[in-house]
Predict the 3D structure of the following.
Amino acid sequence: MYNVGVPTVQIIYATGSGHTEYVVNVLAAHLRENAAHVSVTLTRAEQATPDDMTKSDVVILASGSWNTGGVEGQMHPFMVEFLGKRAKDVELKKKRCTVIALGDERYYYTARAGEHMRMFLIDHGADMFMDPLTVVNDPYGQEEKVRKWCDRFVSLLLKKS
């Protein structure tokens, strides 16, 4: 009998207000309830190591958009520090990756953190195998959007590369 390995998903996220953490927890709960054959690990960016980006089958980076340094549309400072310092030399070697970006429609660069994370992943050799999840404004009440994205994610995850 052929035994397929359990796909592993590493979600590295940065949160300040708790909105990004809420979204990744909704995603992880949906995965655990509806895709038991997928193993998911959540790691806060301030605790993440470069190994966290290479030891799983798929990496998801998640961050809200901030006005760090007076410049609108940046990643959360913990994600900036993680990607810009600790993980700056990581080689992703066609690892399947995607991003979750949060933002506020009051700002011109709504959810622009997603672009920064996406460019980091592309620059480090990742395979951006699906479109990002973008959550604009308060994530509470947008759980169904997260679940639908998660279902597409699982469908693509289980396809052979």
